[in-house]
Design goal:
Chain B: GO terms for molecular function: acyltransferase activity. Chain B: InterPro entries: Thiolase-like. Chain B: This is Lipid-transfer protein. The complex is a heterodimer of chains A (320) and B (350). Chain A has 320 residues and is mainly beta. Chain A is built from 2 helices and 18 strands. The longest helix of chain A has 12 residues. Chain A starts with 5 loop residues before the first strand and ends in a 15-residue tail after the last strand. Chain B has a domain of 128 residues: Thiolase/Chalcone synthase (Peroxisomal Thiolase, Chain A, domain 1). In chain B, strands 1, 2, 3, 4, 7, 8, 9, 10, 11, 12 and 13 form an 11-stranded mixed beta sheet that branches. In chain B, 65% of the residues are buried. The chains are: A mainly beta (320), B alpha/beta (350).
């Protein structure tokens, strides 16, 4: 049995990238259903065009059109496609040298089984119906008949409206695990308890517990139950709205130093006007109803003032 | 140039690390082993450098919390690379060359099993025309393997021979995730997975961490009578586009080998996460037939991301400490299909 708590988590973000004149022209071509290659100083036609010549390091400026048919130069079978790949059923990845080009392009090849693909086979681009100017405008390659005319004539280049930027969405799925010490912390929270750990060497008490004392690197061992009362050491008033915000600003986010702990942790201070929150203010956890508890710090809805006199500055000045 | 040696090495490799992606709980005992090997405390370490990746961990600044395992009072001289341990070691070696420090402890860690490793690694590719179609690591290696088979540079039997030897050698490696050789014919009878690759041609997804200790001159001699002196160290990189590379070759590995003096190397620990890549490396480095390759079992039997390259250097250093060899080589790779390569040649005192 696992000694740690874990939960699935998805990290997603969009990269917005400017393309520049070379890739912008290549991607603009794809939008129009045309494959643009770049001629390098050694006379080769490379697809996608390199931004700079690999030998002279000059910007690529000599562009040609190549055919959307070509020949497989290497391939591999993808028995278990992963999310985001061009096809969601088993397929081949292939290096395809398009007719008129001298270097291969990597893309998916839609065939039913490894028996349906071989090095040297003729393939053609299957274009996506609605094209936007990125590499996925090529939906994939598909088998093509062995045509007699192999090298397509390079027509004079039509005018291409270059793509100036693309958005690349990235989404990664993880099974995120807490450390054994953090797992204890979260399990205790599900029982309404706060548990820290004490460094056996320097005696400091950390909450949430950490696997090693960040001061001296000693593994933390002793569990320390902590009360749910503490002192505001420092705070900020959040006035700015942001994506995913759960409370309407203004509200107070504060570091709370629990009594007996040596490190403050971040939580909300509510039940008091934001402008009245102050350093040294004594606070106590406001727990959600027990029926809503899980293995999460959100079991504590927020901290609220206790009404006690403020703590003496000397009691928390080492923790700012 | 200052004489710098590898004087400490600790590792953990496992299929599935039941702990946090910060790996702090994994690093603490590794550092303890390094302190025991050297007789040092953390205050004897002049420079720290780590290797890890936020993409692998699924959290930002993944290296920051790992510093807990060191402790920072008094403050430490610390750095980080988004690369394998071997490159963290390279930075530490340079740091020692500057004369600023005499000792270094370098470490790396990663929980590959937290995500889908072969997919995550698509993010290290060219971001305009490759990453958006998510070419996974295994597929890219498959394209490379096929290119060599079609060109007649290697065949499936040669690949199976590499796998069988690795699996057999791994039986003596307590950290190996996959072990137990059988025969080349038996391996060839197994089903093809990512045609032309079989599962045993691909490194297993591995969690783990490792640490290496470096010391200069007398500081190294204080630790051991037989330090593994770094005789030469070099790394090079090939273009990121797969289409413009001859996939049957690895020019960067060849150049790194050329920049080092490989004469007399008896043992070579090569970081080859796919069986055919060992064949590429062996050829590019020009290793003679009598060079013993990957006696640890190599990356085919366990390949913890960000540690596996450095582990090759540690394993090669260990052969010198034990007196088993007088001159060894550790190699690390990074990027798709052997794009980046580092070679480290070590020797015993004369």
């Amino acid at each position: 049995m696992a000694r740690t708590l874990s939960a699935p988590v998805t990290v997603a973000f969009d990269y917005t990238r400017s393309t520049g004149p070379v890739l912008g022209r290549f991607l603009g071509g794809l939008r129009e259903g045309v494959v643009v290659g770049g001629r390098t100083s050694d006379g080769r036609v490379v697809v996608p065009p390199p931004e700079f010549d690999p030998v002279t390091h000059e910007p690529t400026q000599d562009f040609v059109e190549v055919a959307d048919t070509g020949t497989v130069t290497s391939w591999t079978w993808v028995p278990e496609p992963v999310k985001g790949q061009p096809l969601d059923r088993p397929f081949a990845f292939a290096l395809v040298t398009l007719d008129g080009a001298d270097a291969p392009l990597l893309h998916a090849l839609d065939v039913a089984s490894p028996a349906d693909v071989h090095t040297g086979m003729r393939v053609r681009i299957r274009w996506r119906e609605e094209r936007t100017g990125d590499i996925t405008d090529i939906a994939c390659f598909e088998p093509a008949p062995d045509a007699a005319e192999v090298a397509a004539p390079r027509e004079p280049l039509r005018t291409i409206d270059p793509v100036t930027g693309i958005v690349v969405p990235v989404e990664l799925d993880y099974l995120y695990a807490a450390s054994p010490e953090e797992s204890l912390f979260y399990t205790s929270l599900s029982q309404g308890k706060l548990v820290g750990q004490r460094c056996p060497r320097c005696g400091k008490v950390y909450i949430p517990p950490r696997s090693a004392c960040p001061s001296d690197g000693t593994p933390t061992t002793d569990e320390v139950p902590l009360p749910d009362t503490g002192t505001v050491t420092t705070f900020c008033i959040v006035n700015v709205p942001f994506l995913g915000q759960r409370i309407t600003p203004p509200y107070v986010s504060a570091y709370v130093l629990l009594d007996g702990a040596d490190i403050a942790f971040l939580h909300l201070i509510l039940d008091i006007p934001a402008e009245e929150v102050r350093m040294g203010m004594r606070v106590k956890a406001v727990w959600k109803p027990e029926s809503e508890w899980g293995t999460t710090i959100e079991n504590i809805s927020h901290f609220a003032p206790t009404g006690e006199p403020d703590a003496d500055y000397d009691t928390y000045k080492q923790h700012l | 140039m200052r004489d710098v040696a590898v004087v400490g090495f600790a590792q953990r490799q496992m299929q599935d690390f039941d702990g946090s992606p910060t790996c702090v709980e994994l690093l603490v005992p590794l550092f303890a082993e390094c302190y025991e090997q050297t007789g040092w405390t953390r205050r004897d370490v002049g420079f720290w450098c780590s290797g890890s990746s936020d993409y692998l961990a699924g959290r930002s600044f993944s290296f920051v919390q790992a510093v807990d395992a060191i402790g920072v009072i008094p403050p430490v001289n610390e750095s980080h690379v988004e690369m394998d341990l071997a490159w963290a070691m390279y930075e530490a070696w340079l740091k020692i060359q500057t004369g600023e420090v005499d000792t270094a402890l370098v470490y790396a860690f990663g929980k590959s099993s937290a995500g889908v490793l072969r997919r995550t690694l698509s993010l290290q590719l060219e971001p305009y025309t490759m990453t958006p179609i998510w070419p996974d690591t295994v597929s890219l290696a498959g394209l490379q393997a096929r290119a060599g088979i079609d060109a007649g540079v290697w065949d499936e039997r040669a690949m199976a021979e590499v796998a069988n030897r690795s699996l057999t050698d791994a039986e003596k490696n307590e950290y190996a995730v996959r072990k137990g050789g059988s025969s080349v014919d038996e391996l060839l009878a197994r089903p093809v997975y990512a045609d032309p690759l079989r599962k045993h041609d691909c490194a297993p997804v591995t969690d783990g961490a490792a640490a290496l200790v470096l010391a200069a001159g007398d500081r190294a001699r204080e630790v051991t009578d037989r330090p593994a002196w770094i005789r030469s160290l070099a790394h090079f990189v090939d273009p990121m586009s797969m289409g413009t590379r001859d996939l049957t070759r690895s020019p960067s590995a060849q150049r790194a080998g050329e920049a080092c003096d490989l004469d007399g190397v008896e043992v070579a620990e090569l970081h080859a996460p796919f069986s055919h890549q060992e064949l590429v490396l062996r050829r590019e480095l020009g290793l003679a037939d009598d060079v013993r390759v990957n006696p640890s079992g190599g990356a085919l039997t366990s390949n913890p991301m960000f540690s596996a390259g450095g582990i090759r250097i540690g394993e090669a250093a260990r052969r010198i400490w034990s007196g088993e060899a007088a001159r060894t080589l550790g190699h690390a790779t990074s990027g798709p299909a052997l794009q980046q390569n580092l070679v480290c040649v070590m020797g015993a005192d004369h």
